[in-house]
Amino acid sequence: MTRAVDFLYLLSWAGSVGADSLTVKVLGSPLIVREGEDAVLPCLFLSPDTNAESLEVKWYGVQETLVHTYLDHKDVLDAQIDKYKGRTSLFQEELRKGNVSLQIRGVRISDKGSYSCCVISAKQMYCDKLELHFPETFEISMQWAAIANSLLVPVIVIAALCCCIRKLTKETLKKQNENVEAEKKALQKENERLGRENERLGKEKQDLQKKNETLAIEKQTAQAEKQDLQKKNETLEIEKQTAQAEKQDLQKKNETLAIEKQTAQAEKKALQKENERLGRENERLGKETLKKQKENVEADLKDLRQKTNTVGYVLDREWKLITEPRVKVTPDPDTASPSLTVSEDGSLVRFTGERSEEWPSVVGREGFTSGRCYWEVEVGEKGYWVLGVSTHPHEKSIPEKPEEGYWLVRLVKGKTCRAVSQSGDQIVQLEKICKVWGVYLDHEGGRLSFYNAETRFHIYTFEGSFPGQVYPIFSPGSYDKGPLIIQRVQHT
């Protein structure tokens, strides 16, 4: 309902600005395409120097559905209906030239009909329409297009106005009746309150009369006391003058003390600043000392590893930090290639199809958007396999040359190990055959590391940033039937 109201509002606004104000124009309407082709719905600003990058662009489709939205220099597709998801896009480089055309990939018969291109600025909005037809339905659609365009806007606007007037009238009458009833109840309460107030005032009047009689007697007594007080006031006046003289002496002493206090505060602040400076200096010296000590220890450790041929070995404390965030990783059979079989408990992934050059794959049910996690996979004696993470949860095979969204380690022919990502393809030197691989993901730190889980030696690390959710990905290759075994993590 919200989309329909939004579309009615856009149509009424576009009609109100007049034909001379419209500076956006669709081209080649009606547009005729064949089912399965990619369709480009053309929409351009008539002025060649108009830049649409900072404007809001909305495309509406069949039955006023929201097809695509561009806002704040990016696509906003939260409200896009399901059938267009993943099928629409604008030409980003053409926006600065005023080209806001929409591309629909793989058009379907259900896509045919009227589409509206609307461009919204801070002060105005511009809209125009085009028709999307297929060759076999174009002649019939042309006969009804003229009738629909001439009747749609007036009928919708009149119906919307009538509905709003009936609703507002009914709500106004209801609110007026509620206000009258509330005022009536308030007047009744006020009458009851005034009756109680009159009764209370009568009692108070009687009490006041008695108090007046008592006050007359007290007045006579007070006059006598007044005379005594006058005599006492004369005595107090003399004492007051004496006190004022003493007060002046105290004020002078206080002024002297205030000056001494200000001097002491200034000295205190100076001492505090000096103490703070000395504290920062001590802290800096301490950090420098610790840094030098750390550098010396790391240099000694590096030298020791080189001498003992243990470069890459992970010490106990660091290995505990790596394996502590262990997670349960379960391959999702729904994402598996048809040539793969996933065991019922999710611990085995095996190639069961015909031998080919493809890399059939399956991703884990668990996706990671933050934090640190660790899992282990046993590859055994297999000569072909792929391990890593991916941002593509619905693809059932790994490209031979992956581009964006893959961070992988791949073994080919049992001897060539490569690290593959968007940034390149690099050979990984293995000192010895690694049968159990540990995979460590630090999402915020932008690190994906691989370890020999049996010997605790570091093998390779990808560094960078991971855009959004990533999923563990597994491929046993398509050359042997040996399985990949996803193991439970155990500290050693």
**Cα gyration radius (Å):** 43 Å
Biggest beta-sheet profile: 7 strands, antiparallel
Q: What fraction of the residues are assigned to beta strands by DSSP?
A: 15-25%
What's the helix count? 3
- SSE class: alpha+beta
According to CATH, the homologous superfamily of the domain at 318-487 is SPRY domain
| Low-confidence runs of at least 5 consecutive residues | 1-22, 144-148
Features of the shown structure:
26 strands, 492 residues, alpha+beta, 6-stranded mixed β-sheet, Immunoglobulin-like, 24% strand, Jelly Rolls, 7-stranded antiparallel β-sheet
Question: Can you give a write-up of this model?
Answer:
The chain is of the alpha+beta class and 492 residues long. It is extended, with a radius of gyration of 43 Å. The strands form six sheets. It has a seven-stranded antiparallel β-sheet, with no helix packed on it. The longest helix is centred in the middle third of the chain and has 170 residues. Among the domains are: 135 residues, Immunoglobulin-like (Sandwich), CATH 2.60.40.10; 170 residues, SPRY domain (Jelly Rolls, Sandwich). The N terminus is likely disordered. It is built from three helices and 26 strands.
Kindly summarize this structure in a few lines.
By secondary structure, the chain is α+β, with helices and mostly antiparallel strands.
